[in-house]
Specification:
By secondary structure, the chain is an alpha/beta fold. The protein has 10 helices and 8 strands. Strands 1, 2, 3, 4, 5, 6, 7 and 8 form an 8-stranded mixed beta sheet that branches.
Length: 279
């Protein structure tokens, strides 16, 4: 299908550690000098989308990401005490984002950005498109039970993946005429249970956690399929990620995740060229 050059939206899904593949997607775009007109993201996809929209260079993103392959680097971001409603309060992550984004607001970004969160009380989708960037990023990654929710505008918000893990709808509402979506949450039938060779992890790796991850993958896939029926993407990329990587484990394979994103770009190069260079 030939595309007339239109307003292009890039949509990045949540997926925890698997979301580092989005950096490979951005590397592929940069190498070809292709730029989306707006970006949206949820959870880990929201973090990467925010970094891109802030003007952060892809090489810097990759360098920062690879640093998390080392456990001490990751451990410095984890709170020492358990929060009342989550394993981690998330204050150190918030400070990390404040330093990364240097006080930026959505209104000051180089590229229009939309992030997805969910109201803890009502279950409603909450689109974050204004105000302090660091706080919004911290909200979109507030995975229930792991990171404490974040209050914004009088609403207590958690990870947007609870409702809309691949926010194509948000991109359309922001004016995207053509949407390229990247989903890093694989179909469960194509995954094996996490192995012991996953590297550093936010949670202890065990069969219990592995089966919980399988259940999460099934729920996320089912919900994403329903969302895509309502709000389809024009082009959907599914990077092939190492089986050792899951939402909370596999930090030792970050470089491989980034390479998987680049490989997905190569595999869809002709279709992407039609999107970004169409007449």
């Amino acid at each position: 299908m030939a595309y007339k050059r239109s307003r292009i939206g890039l949509v990045l899904s949540g997926g925890g550690v698997r979301g580092f593949a989005h950096i490979g997607i951005l590397k592929g775009l940069a190498a070809r000098k292709w730029r989306p007109d707006l970006v949206t993201g949820t959870s880990m996809g929201g973090i990467v989308a925010a970094a891109y929209a802030s003007g952060m260079l892809v090489d810097a993103m990759e360098s920062e990401a690879v640093g998390f392959m080392h456990l001490p680097r990751l451990a410095r971001l984890l709170d020492r005490r358990v929060h009342t409603n989550a394993l981690l309060g998330g204050e150190r992550f918030l400070q990390y984002f404040r330093e990364m984004f240097d006080g930026l607001t959505f209104e000051e970004l180089a590229v229009p950005l939309g992030l997805m969160a969910v109201d803890c009380e009502t279950g409603e989708r909450v689109e974050l498109r204004s105000g302090d960037l660091a706080t919004a990023v911290r909200a979109t990654m507030a995975f229930p039970g792991v990171f404490a929710p974040v209050e914004i505008g009088g609403r207590l918000l958690m990870d947007g993946g609870a409702s809309d893990n691949l926010p194509v709808r948000l991109a359309r509402e922001m004016g995207a005429e053509v949407v390229v979506a990247v989903n890093v949450c694989p179909r469960p039938e194509y995954r094996t249970l996490a192995s012991e060779d996953s590297g550093p992890s936010l949670l202890p790796i065990s069969q219990l956690v592995a089966f919980a991850q399988r259940g999460l993958d099934i729920i996320m896939t089912t919900l994403t399929d329903l969302r895509l029926e309502q709000w389809p993407a024009d082009l959907l990329l599914n990077p092939l990620l190492p089986s050792e990587v899951s939402t909370f484990s596999g930090f030792g394979h970050i470089a491989a995740c980034i390479a998987a994103g680049e490989a997905a770009m190569d595999a869809h190069e002709d279709e992407l060229r039609e999107v970004f260079e169409g007449e």
